[in-house]
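Our consortium's second objective concerns turning raw sequence data into structural hypotheses that experimental partners can test. To show how far this objective has progressed, the report includes one record in full. It was chosen at random from the queue rather than selected for favorable results. The single chain below, 105 residues long, was entered without modification.
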Amino acid sequence: MAGPQDTSGGIRRLDAYRAEQGENFEERFVAYGDYGRESGVRAMAELLKRAPELDAVFAANDMMAAGALEALKAACRRARTRQHRAEVRRGPFREGRSMAPQKAI
């Protein structure tokens, strides 16, 4: 989930993802937001429709990650095996500290 493409951070983060993916990069795995929680909800919902096989997500910031978790819960996406788990890397923001899931999703 990329940030706004009219900001240097949004552009740099997406460029780094593209570079890391190399020839495996697929635009269908990218959704855009504005760094806000609601845009994370919308971006995650869009990704779930476009790529239901998705098994990992990188969010541009904590607020978008919190929105993604909200969308995943709403979609009732639950892990079927012990190999699946949610990993939340939290930043210094209050939102990031409060969004660690109790169970794997």
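The partners drew two points from this record. Helices lie at 8-21, 37-50, 62-74, 94-97. The chain has one domain: 8-97. Both points have been shared with the crystallography group to help prioritize constructs.
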